[in-house]
Design brief:
The protein is α+β, with helices and mostly antiparallel strands. It contains 14 helices and nine strands.
Amino acid sequence: MDRKVSTAYLKIGMYVSRLDRPWVQTPFLIQGFFIKDEIEICSLVKYCDFVFIDTDLGVRANKYCDMAQTIHTKQTLIPDSQVDGILDTGKKTVDYVDKKTTIEELPEAKLALEKASECVARIVEHDLRKGQLNVTTVKNAVEPILDSMIRNSDAFMWLSKMRQHDSNSYERSVQNCALGIAFGRHMGLNKRALNTLAIGLLMMDIGKTRLSKELLEKSTPYTPAETEVVRKHVDYSVEILRSAKDINENIINIALTHHERYDGSGYPNGLIGIQTPAYGRMAAIIDCYDAMITTRPYRPAIAEHKALQSIYNLGGKAFQQELVEQFMQCMGVYPTGSLVELSSGAVAAILSQNAQQKLKPRVLLLLDENKQPYKKRSVFDLTKQDEMPIHITKSLENNTYGVDVRQIGL
């Protein structure tokens, strides 16, 4: 019997009966073969997104793309017509315009960030220890972030970038929330939808509070057995959210589906395509991006431009292509808070985006052309120049020329 399998789940001993493309477009000369070593698996991964294996002849897979699996938790997966409608028509529900500049919004954004961090800390350290999730506390965390980012999304994103945080800190939940609002704001979702997305992203990993600290802070990659344990956080998150009052199903579904993948290679249910609701498809992109730019116990964070390139390469595979394109537009060629070098030789940090000219954001000048700190930092708008305009020549890794963007203050 032929079964469709993502190449991410191939094993030695499987019998490959069909590919996702003509055999002549690949180096495999025999049309039907047993996988005999890791080299063949790597070659299949390189040329194919999925293959078909004959389960009567060879080893079976742990997960199939065509598997009609049972949802781990009893949850109705509700499609979001607003997001799908925007993707289909290109017409935004709301066309947001900045009401304040980034500098003007920074004080309010700072208060929102501090309040959100305090609320999330209270949820984890107080409410959940009492066995309950206080929805009022969750709403109190999200509301000031949402209001601030509706006025200007860059100010909060800048401050969030400045915070030191690792993969298990409260700040990461807050950053996910902010990324979700920025993504939804860019797409033109109304405030109610932004609120749903924000709460879902803030709370989607709340189930990790039930995992051991030793496991979460492990300094080496997880073993297969440990991976299975960590993946249980999805069911734990759903259970915690469902037990709370006034949490709607869309929020719960974000927790349930943010590890699903468009090609069916995700978990816990191997959903394919739009079987995952739109909020979940958006959350999957955000979670993956933020994971890459966040320091892990076993690896350092990678630069934003490299993380975006990885997300782009996964478009049409792990993530829906249309949503990937929207996310790339939202984040900009040079994401807020990232480090760049200018054609003048100066080094700057991206302070805010120019919606109409993505290659010309507003930057905070840090080092001069001799790579010496400016006596007084200033904001430079790359769109407002006359002759011989200065432009960005390249993105830089954090700590290049001794500049740590997380230590920058305004």
